[in-house]
TrEMBL record:
PROSITE patterns: RT_POL. It comes from Mytilus coruscus (Sea mussel). It comes from the Eukaryota. The lineage of its organism: Eukaryota, Metazoa, Spiralia, Lophotrochozoa, Mollusca. Residues 1-175 form the Reverse transcriptase domain. This is Reverse transcriptase domain-containing protein. PANTHER family: REVERSE TRANSCRIPTASE DOMAIN-CONTAINING PROTEIN, REVERSE TRANSCRIPTASE-LIKE PROTEIN WITH RNA-DIRECTED DNA POLYMERASE DOMAIN.
Length: 185
């Protein structure tokens, strides 16, 4: 769905005006999801109380050990992360970052097709930001940066890009080379 939204938005705008597209890849996102923040989000969104309790049980009291050179460590508690490949994991992550997406939409940052907001199509931990001007894109990037710090995850600087299409030229820049979070693109 996110790819279709991106494709439609670019088709609508392409050749008419400059579009800024930021592709953001969250770094080890599933590993760093705070259980406390996640459970707060699930309750906040009004998830059925039984499902909230099941989700909380799924992630409370989780322990792990490390085996190295035939030796096993003592167990330790796990307070963050959702299971890689778990059936619920992508849905739980969506609940974890939904406030970010709603904040961008509420601030009316990003592009629209007609009256439909398409400023941040997202699939699991991959976020795309779409804007028609540089200053707005920078504001969106700053909001993502602040949210990621507050929610304990990072954007992968080598896997995140800003693509600028002017109608004649397409320029792709690695975010790591292009900006330090909080500075202008």
């Amino acid at each position: 769905m996110a790819a279709q939204i991106l494709s439609e938005a670019c088709s609508e705008i392409s050749g008419k005006q400059t579009i800024f597209v930021s592709t953001l890849d969250s770094q080890k996102t599933f590993d760093v999801v705070s259980h406390e923040i996640l459970m707060d989000r699930l309750y906040y969104y009004g998830l059925n109380l039984n499902l909230c309790n099941i989700s909380e049980e799924l992630y409370s009291g989780v322990t792990s050990t490390v085996k190295w050179k035939g030796e096993t460590s003592t167990s330790f508690d796990i307070h963050q992360g959702v299971r890689q490949g778990g059936i619920l994991s992508t849905h739980l992550y969506k609940a974890y970052i939904n406030e970010l997406l709603l904040d961008l939409q509420k601030r009316n940052l990003g592009t629209h097709i007609g009256n439909n907001y398409v400023g941040c199509p997202t699939c699991a931990d991959d976020i795309v930001l779409l804007s028609l001007n540089r200053e707005e894109m920078q504001e969106m990037l700053n909001i993502v940066d602040n949210y990621s710090k507050d929610h304990r995850f990072n954007m992968h600087p080598q896997k995140s890009n800003v693509i600028i299409e002017t109608g004649k030229n397409i320029t792709s820049l690695k975010i790591a080379m292009l900006l330090k979070w909080g500075t202008m693109i």
